[in-house]
Amino acid sequence: MYSQILCGLYQNEQVLRVGAVFASGFIRAVKFLEKHWVRLCHDIRKGTIDGEITDPNVREAVMKILKPNPKLAAFVESECNKESWKGIITRLWPNTKYVDVIVTGTMSQYIPILDYYSNGLPLVCTMYASSECYFGLNLNPLCDPSEVSYTLIPTMAYFEFLPLNKIDGNADSISATEQEHLVDLVDVELGQEYELVVTTYAGLYRYRVGDILRVAGFKNKAPQFNFICRKNVVLSIDSDKTDEVELQNAVKNGSNHLSNYNASLIDYTSSADTSTIPGHYILYWEITKNNQNPIPDSVYEECCFTVEDSLNSVYRQGRITESIGPLEIKVVENGTFDKVMDFALSQGASINQYKTPRCVKYGPILELLNSKTVSSFFSPKCPQWVPGHKKWCTLD
């Protein structure tokens, strides 16, 4: 990453696009630049490459490009040394036309911070793919991120679709009962949601990718799909079931309270803590602040309550009957989610496919998150569930 950013800065006027596979990876790169810009400026000024870069092939490749450029170093130094990093992308790379990054599904939480760094450049989601195979393309790449849909290309793999109400398992393979309900690409229906199933040239047969898609429309007769969520991300304490989309919306509503204090949510994950009775949801939040003013505890408590107030009726009923305890937010140190990613990569995860897990059950990652926790807050009040009513009120 250091070498890529160094070359990108050195050739800053030639850069036409910036990005990464996922929004989280691109934010990680910007944070890396924020941490190491002094060393990068030194290398640009002297025409050298930092001694920590030890791979001889990398050093040789970079040195073919790099020559001393004090004027450029002074420019980068001036921009990075400013109090605000708003628009840093367009300031350092003035000819950048767009940010090439996936911001669908839970990646949508990064849109505000991407807009902040890029001065509102178009966020372009070009393709839909996974480690199993490529699936399709976004035929309208300059559309608003909320309107992104992907047209599946039938020569990429053989695609089948399991209606959401017919899913009865979580295994990688399709059960005999589920096979009876599989739908071909030409038979999907507008507005319906399906789990994607693929048979690939590499030998996967009726493999469950784990993605939930909704039919958004058609290009001629080719179906176009919205990516909704990952199927297996679920929080549960009792009879409650909280999926990824619901959790994302609840976290978004709760974190809105931070904006009044010039703060925002960088990243988050969750876990279901059943070590106590009753068990409760825990959210791990990494927060960035644009000033030194402290955020009152009452604001975090209001965040907790708003998250709970945004969850489903089964969860809220559980809170009333005390089968579920008050939701907890644990604020972690800045850089914690970088360390979570580093740990995942050390265990063999692919950097191109890595996404922050939205629900954590793995002990070592939970230990890491807990070790980086700097403060903890609980929901101070309980939403009231009224049988037969969809509306909720609050108990003081």
UniProtKB/TrEMBL annotation:
Domain GH3 C-terminal as annotated: residue spans: 246-361
Protein name: GH3 auxin-responsive promoter
InterPro entries tied to this protein: GH3, GH3_C, GH3_M
Positions of transmembrane segments: none
Keywords recorded for this protein, A-Z: Ligase
Claim: Ligase is one of the keywords in the record: yes
GH3 middle domain location: 150-230
GO terms assigned for molecular function: indole-3-acetic acid amido synthetase activity
Family of the protein in this entry: Belongs to the IAA-amido conjugating enzyme family.
One Pfam family this sequence matches: GH3_C
Cellular component per GO, a single term: cytoplasm
Organism expressing this protein natively: Trifolium subterraneum
